[in-house]
Amino acid sequence: MSYGFRVEIKGDYACFSRPELKVERVSYEVITPSAVCGILEAVLWKPAIRYIIDQIDVCKPIRFENIRRNELSSKIPSGSIQNTTQKLLSGDLYLAASADRTQRAAMVLRDVCYIITGHFEMTDKAGPDDNEGKFIAMLQRRLLKGQNYHTPYLGVREFPAQIRLIPDGEVPPSPVSVCRSLGLMLHSIDYIKNIGKDGQETITAFEPTYFMAEMKQGTIDLRDVEVLR
Fold it and tell me: Domains in the chain, ordered, with CATH?
C-alpha cells in the first residue's frame, strides 16, 4: 500500500533565499523542496523517516515585494566556538546586537499559498515496528491538533507559515494557469556524516543539491527530476 499526504502551506510573506546572492536577500520565485521539508519537520520529525516531496502546486500569483530588515552585520567566527566553555566564562562568545545592527534590503514573496503532495521514505534508523502508515497517522494527528515542535516558517523566522492537512475528499485550491521555467533551484541538502573513534555519528560537512525547476500550469512535478550536485 502506498501512503502519502497533502498539505496546504500559506503565509503573508516568504523568502527562500537564493544562495548566489548573499548580502541582499532575493527569494526564489516559489518555495523550495528543502524549505517544504523544514516546515514539515517542524510538525513531525523522527530519525526513522525522510520526507519526499512529489509535487508543489502554486495556488497564488507570484508577487515580489522589496522590504528592509534589521540584521547583524557580522557573525561569530567558527574558530571562536572552540573552547566554548572558556569563552562563555570569559564573556567573549557573544555579539552585541545593538552595536552590530544593520539594515539590508530583501526581495521577498508576498501572499503565498502552496499545495504540497508528498510521502515518507524509511531510513536506516527505522525500527522493526516502524512503517509509513504509522507516521502518516502521526503527521495527520499533529496537523489536525495544530501541534509542532517549533513555529514553522517560510524561509526566515520572521515569516510564520500556516500549515493544514487537506483531508481526503476535499478539493484543494487550483494552481495558477502559468507555465514557465524557474531555472536552477535548491532541491535539498545532503549531510556528510562520519563515525568517530568513540562510535558517535557526527556531521562533518554538507552538500547542496539542485534541479532545473519547470512550472507547468502552476505545478512543479518533482517525481522524476534530475538532481544535480
Answer: 5-69+106-221 (3.30.70.2660)
